[in-house]
Write a structure and sequence with these properties.
This is Sugar phosphate isomerase/epimerase. InterPro entries: IolE/XylAMocC-like, TAT_signal, Xyl_isomerase-like_sf, Xyl_isomerase-like_TIM-brl. By secondary structure, this protein is of the alpha/beta class. It is built from 14 helices and 14 strands. It is 37% helix and 15% strand. The strands form 4 sheets. Strands 1-2-3-4-5-8-11-14 form an 8-stranded parallel beta barrel, surrounded by 5 helices. It has a two-stranded antiparallel ribbon with strand order 6-7. Strands 9-10 form a two-stranded antiparallel ribbon. α8 crosses α9.
Length: 374
């Protein structure tokens, strides 16, 4: 007797909606919803199916990956230790952060108060070696630094970039980056030029220093790329591609990485919704931060994790607060990207002190980070 072919297994309504949202075929949708798809079969977007396959009550941010960018505690790093018994300067602040549970830090420069141990500027080879001794003593790993990336490629700027990378390697970093966008422009030509420069610098950082070059972005980089002219030839219309998505497509994944600030990505979700299409019609597209990461998971080794209360009347849509005290659904975000063994979230507040001060915010926020399960 000849075996008869079986009919394709039908999708449930929920599975069909899931597949349409991610652009998956019927077979890929079935595999994703069962938690059985491999990255090769389905692609990076399948990582958004992690809620179906996640282990209950497993830490979404494992203890070794709980980090903070030191810009958050810049006030205590910069205060005079002679005026207070509280932690001040890099050594005492690193000690405090270790005691409350942080195991990673991201630097935002290497200066402190001149009266702190080590002096004002530790951004030298000697200063970096001192910082590394403190990091090792307190069981903390340095992951990256918000420094500067050359805006032009010259012998002088490359030499300065190499010096930045040298300090990073002394500190044991795996990444080196900047807190700014690759360009402040919005046209395709401007982002093409930025991509060319970042490809050069990223290859230099990796080949010469073993470092991943990354860009950190606020909401502006998620605005729409102006890649289509109007009737007069002015480049003021868009095909609906976001600037940072285009940057991902034209930079080399072997040499250029990104750090998503999850708070500012949600601000972009609130702010950057409408664009003028090539035919002049007004169009709308709502940004999904977790979906972007899921599609490019290995391009995002670093994150900034800060929270916000939803305030629809505010220009940004949010009011920044410590992690766990706002409306951003971090549990859902980290479950959807499902990169707990790759991603390194850094708590940050970049609007100054809040409540009882930056060290208290750091303690509150690592407790919230540790409580994320799924």
């Amino acid at each position: 007797m000849t075996d008869q072919p079986t009919s394709p297994r039908p999708l449930t309504d929920e599975q069909a909606r899931f597949g349409r949202r991610l652009g998956l075929s019927r077979r890929q949708t079935l595999a994703a919803s069962m938690g059985l798809a491999t990255a090769g079969a389905v692609g990076a977007a399948v990582t958004t199916a992690s809620p179906a396959s996640a282990v209950p009550n497993r830490a979404l941010v494992p203890p070794p990956r709980r980090g903070i960018i030191l810009y958050t505690v810049r006030d205590v790093i910069g205060r005079d230790p002679g005026t207070t018994d509280a932690p001040s300067g890099f050594r005492e602040v690193l000690k405090y952060l270790s005691e409350v549970g942080y195991r990673q830090v991201e630097f935002a420069g290497y200066t402190q108060h001149a009266n702190a141990v080590g002096g004002a500027d530790l951004g030298t080879t000697q200063g970096a070696r001192q910082l590394k001794r403190w990091l090792d003593a307190f069981g903390i790993v340095a992951q990256g630094n918000h420094g500067s990336v050359p805006s032009t490629i010259t012998a002088a700027t490359l030499a300065e970039f190499d010096r930045t990378c040298e300090i990073a390697t002394i500190l044991g970093m795996k990444h080196v980056g900047t807190g700014g966008d690759p360009t402040g422009g919005s046209t395709k030509a401007e982002w093409d030029a930025a991509a060319d420069r970042w490809n050069i610098l990223g290859e230099r950082a990796m080949r010469n220093h073993g470092l991943k070059l990354y860009t950190h972005n606020h909401d502006g980089a998620y605005g729409f790329l102006l890649d289509s002219p109007d009737a007069a030839g002015a480049m003021i219309r868009s095909t609906g591609v976001r600037k940072l998505e285009y940057f991902l497509s034209v930079t080399d994944p072997k040499f250029v990485w990104l750090e998503m600030d999850i708070y500012w990505a949600h601000v972009a979700q609130f702010k950057h919704t409408d664009f003028t299409a090539p035919d002049g019609a007004e169009a709308r597209n709502i940004f999904d931060p977790a979906l972007l990461v899921a599609r490019h998971a290995r391009r995002y080794p670093l994150f900034h994790a800060k929270d916000g209360n939803n305030v629809p009347t505010a220009d940004s849509g949010y009011d920044m607060v410590p992690l766990g005290q706002g409306d951003i659904d971090y549990q859902s975000f980290f479950r959807r990207i499902d990169s707990r063994n790759y991603a390194n979230p850094m708590f940050e507040m970049d609007n100054g002190t809040y409540g009882n001060g930056s060290l208290d915010n750091a303690r509150i926020s690592i407790e919230a980070m540790a409580a994320l399960k799924g």
